[in-house]
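Translate sequence into structure tokens.
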Amino acid sequence: MRAIRVLKPTLIVALCVPFLALVLGVLQWPGGYRLGANPVNFVIDELGLWGLRFLLATLILTPLREFSHDPDWLRLRRTLGLSAFAYLSVHLLFYVGVDLRFSLKGFLDDVRDYPWILVGTAGLVGMIPLAITSTDRWLRRLKQRWKQLHRIVYVAVLLGCWHFFWQVKKDKTEPLVYGAVFVGLMVLRLPAVTRALRRVF
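Result follows.
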């Protein structure tokens, strides 16, 4: 699909926009986010939300391939996945570095008091092998095991949605929407899963 050649660089630029808006907001320059009364929490939350959105977007590509019968959609998966990993890594780093000032005791105290932090951290840690093995070289090296390994993304998305839901104290509408999107995307994958099971059995 020729459109992918144009779509991919456009996607890369679009993926950078939220981060740029956060940087501009921190610098208090025009075009940036308004960070509100608690700028540190705002930046942490926005980085996490965009990371989760990009991670969910990676799951949309397989249904798009199925419905359009065009495998080129999957060529965007690495870009989206690595962007999600980058946003979520900075999300955790900003929390640990800026909010906690790299205090291990502060982190352990927060995990004890706010267990959703452990859930989110587990999801990000699960993404580390996916980011490391995202290259073509690892794909050729692992072969079929590559697909098996990268199914960890489903667990990572589930933990991300759980982390978001558990964190919100009052209006849980937004995290429920994210969870519903995840469930819907998994339902769309049922035909592909059924075909795979038929090949096995």
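Note: Residues 78 and 117 are 26 Å apart (CA to CA).
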